[in-house]
Design a protein that fits this description.
Layout: H1 3-8, H2 13-21, H3 26-33, E1 38-39, H4 40-47, H5 52-64, E2 68-73, E3 79-84, H6 86-89, H7 92-108
Antiparallel strand pairs: 1-3, 2-3
Length: about 110
């Protein structure tokens, strides 16, 4: 268990969830992987303006937390695919809710 998740267990389940799926691009990664496995380049294009370094870090954390599976195929050049684990797939309704909330927020957000 990653240290940030372990610390969150001392607070409440909401903090555990935020420790696992909170962070730059994580929910967008989960959203993009809902339709099936993607290679790194495909995922980068699907996620948006994320640097390879940041995406790699987020994928490693999601993998460590059991949300994303990384499959390396033994071929030249190496092929790596990312997919949601069964646990990651359970985030589907949360992704849909957050997506809808974000769209509503954008429609109602005060203009500054």
């Amino acid at each position: 268990m990653r240290e940030s998740v372990r610390r969150a267990t001392q607070v409440c389940p909401v903090e555990v969830a935020i420790a696992v799926v909170g962070g730059a691009w994580k929910m967008t990664v989960v959203k993009q992987l809902r339709d099936g496995p993607l290679r790194f380049g495909e995922l980068t294009r699907a996620v948006g303006p994320v640097t390879p370094r940041v995406l790699t870090r987020q994928l490693r954390e999601l993998e460590a937390d059991g949300v994303v599976h990384r499959e390396v195929y033994p071929q030249v050049p190496p092929r790596v695919e990312y997919s949601l684990t069964p646990l990651g797939q359970t985030l589907g309704s949360l992704v849909e809710s957050l997506d809808a909330w974000g769209a509503d927020y954008l429609a109602q957000a005060p203009v500054r």
